[in-house]
Amino acid sequence: MxxxxxxxxxxxxPTNPVPTRYSDSDQSSNSVIDLIFLRYGSEDLDNHSxxxxxxxxxxxxxxxxxxxxxxxxxxxxxxxKGSAEEKAFIKDVIKDFTTxxxxxxxxxxxxxxxxxSFTLAINKAWEKNSKIVSISRxxxxxxxxxxxxxxxxxxxxxxxxxxxQFKKMVKSTKCIFxxxxx
Length: 182
Description:
Number of helices: 5
Number of strands: 7
Helix content: 40-55%
Largest sheet: 3 strands, mixed
Order of helices and strands: HEEEEEEHHEHH
């Protein structure tokens, strides 16, 4: 319990308190031996359900947690590495940094002001140069505009030639990307 408390987790209570393990023999009784710990104080993740009807021939029952989908973030701001946006971001940050007065950092208050100015400069450059991207299970860091273009070409034509060209493009893009990583 100390570990779960330190991770801000709390014991989840099932919506239907039934056994989670069913005995194979008549001598043993059914029991509840599974525990689920969820984020403490969460309105979306405060309990779980036990599904004895799903267990079929298993001795354990499946447990599920329902998550309120409106709290799942599927978009984020991003700047692609090596892109024109990244270069513009760096240029804007450097330009704004040079305008911050750091010549008179004699006390904590002046240091805090300079740090806040640095933070504002970075945030301003980020908001100007980043773009919103959708997070999906297909999000790949190696994916680029050429892959998108070839995929769209295949989707519009549905030809085998375009499919092969798309697969070839994906393979070469992956090779280039992972060669740079290695």
